[in-house]
Amino acid sequence: MWKEAEDFLLRDKKIAPLVIKWGSCRIKKRPQKYYFEDLVASITEQQLSGKASEAIFKRVRTLLKKNSSSLLSPIAPKDVEKVKEEELRACGISWSKAKYVKDLGEKVSRGEVNLKRLGTLSDEEVVTELIKVKGVGRWTAEMFLMFTLARPDIFPLDDLGIRKAMEKMFGKKLDKPEILKKSTNWKQFRTVASWYLWRSLETT
């Protein structure tokens, strides 16, 4: 789905080697039924490394689906309502994250946050809607825009990995305004560019 983006990025001498090395971007738009689960995952995985975050979310998911008739169905607000903060904490997340997951479930259940309409909103409107939830800031909203909605031009400026990758690419320390300015070379397709920047930090 990203051929146009990849063809565009191949014309940029800085990022083209990454496109060639890593092949097609693997970001795909997620069905609406996974929106809530993806947000739970984003909250539980904040500020954690890849393997650790995956293990913790797996425990959280198992807990939330323990009383469900279908373990394969996506996490729903009703699943969050059935568990206590103490149970979420026992999965390995902080007390604050446990509260954030509960707050997400409550706000979606009450209709204060309308996940069903997110796909119809602009990028900034999605951010505005999601930050109504405690613990969901701009970074978390941007991860949702990128990996759930597959919006093409999201550039998570506050992401540490992105900043490290940009400094590695340009061979010097860069402040945020400089990073943002350089990212305009990839405007229209900065989601895909970001995916390649993250890949550049992998050792294999």
From TrEMBL:
Organism superkingdom: Bacteria
GO term, biological process aspect, one: base-excision repair, AP site formation
Record's catalysed reaction(s): Hydrolysis of alkylated DNA, releasing 3-methyladenine, 3-methylguanine, 7-methylguanine and 7-methyladenine
GO cellular component, one term: protein-DNA complex
Record keywords, A-Z: DNA damage, DNA repair
PROSITE patterns: ALKYLBASE_DNA_GLYCOS
Pfam family, one: HhH-GPD
InterPro entries, A to Z: Alkylbase_DNA_Glycosylase/TA, Alkylbase_DNA_glycsylse_CS, DNA_glycosylase, HhH-GPD_domain
Molecular functions per Gene Ontology: alkylated DNA binding; DNA-3-methyladenine glycosylase activity; DNA-7-methylguanine glycosylase activity
Domain HhH-GPD: 44-202
Enzyme Commission number(s) of this protein: 3.2.2.21
Family: Belongs to the alkylbase DNA glycosidase AlkA family.
Protein name: DNA-3-methyladenine glycosylase II
Classification lineage: Bacteria, Candidatus Woeseibacteriota
